[in-house]
Amino acid sequence: MTAPAWVLSGAVVLVAAGTVLSMKVGARPLSWAELSDGLLRFSGGQADFVVRHVRLPRTLCGLIAGTCLGLAGTVAQGVTRNPLGGPDTLGVNSGAAASMIAVMTAGVGSLAGYVWFGFVGGAVAALAVYAIGGSGRDGVTPVKLALAGAAVSALLTAVTSAVVLLDRDLFARYRYWIIGSLARSDLQTVGQAVPFAAVGVLVAVVLVRRLDVVALGQDAARSLGARPGLTRGAGLVAVVVLAGTATALAGPVVFVGLVAPHAARALAGTAHRWVLPLSGLLAAGLVLLADVAGRVVIAPEEVHIGVTAALVGGPVFLHLVRTRKVAAL
């Protein structure tokens, strides 16, 4: 077995451990017998209710949202050839959140109803960031793109916060989601999210070989018969669908989509056939473990995943911005 295969196997173990902890740990600790009974022999007891209607949907949402964020970050960094690219630094998460909050105020309450607006908002935000980051003589640079993304994200977050704070009912219903949380997950939402996530994953997988070619540079890609423009367009679709789905499930969770691809490349090299699945697994594990940590750090209260993920990803992002390698790109 090659080194990347061993790393991928280790990531699978990490996700499995995160899944088990997510099912067992919380305000109501569960024994192995209670967990087994709740999953296989549901009788309507308190422990069974916690397993089937609280822990299971929360864990599934974490797995789907984390995987989508990891894949979105890998594709975003691949098509832009920008190590600072990601669904949050490109404004996709904030754009999706802002547009979904806007339609929620109009009474749309189901994921299947508002996720389409999330896709549109994420795409518009990403295009705005790219346009701003590409202005000036130097064109698009990693640092300019990161700064443009930070500015657009801050503006959209401020607008979202203003809308929610002015509507008491909306604030009461979605304050957990806006921060970034899995606390109000349910199986119906999981079922609605699966088709969207599957489409995004499929597009990302189709792009694996093209991402390796695009990484060689635009001229080299054209000489090899690739079409960089088509790859970037398809990549943007994948990023918007994946990040929009993750945002609809867990809110605008930041830095996960940025950090996971860097960790994957550090562990398995630069070939996207390894980086893409490894990023998805690492991001899923990170989301689950961050959610578990948020449940126990100030128990019985919770720290939402948007906070715990930012505490991990923020310092990594600052390190990436400061490195000479990034500045020289």
From TrEMBL:
Q: Which superkingdom, per the lineage? A: Bacteria
Pfam families per UniProt: FecCD
Can the keyword Kinase be found in this entry's annotation?
A: no
Instruction: Respond yes or no to whether keyword Transport is given for this record.
Output: yes
Gene3D superfamilies given for it? ABC transporter involved in vitamin B12 uptake, BtuC
Where in the cell is the protein located?
Cell membrane
Listed GO cellular component terms? plasma membrane
Q: Which residues cross the membrane?
A: 90-108, 115-133, 145-166, 187-208, 236-262, 274-297, 303-321
Q: A Gene Ontology biological process annotation?
A: siderophore-iron import into cell
UniProt keywords (A-Z) are: Cell membrane, Membrane, Transmembrane, Transmembrane helix, Transport
Molecular function GO labels: transmembrane transporter activity
**What membrane topology does the UniProt entry give?**
Multi-pass membrane protein
Assigned protein family: Belongs to the binding-protein-dependent transport system permease family. FecCD subfamily.
Protein name, per record: Iron complex transport system permease protein
Organism taxonomic ancestry: Bacteria, Bacillati, Actinomycetota, Actinomycetes, Pseudonocardiales
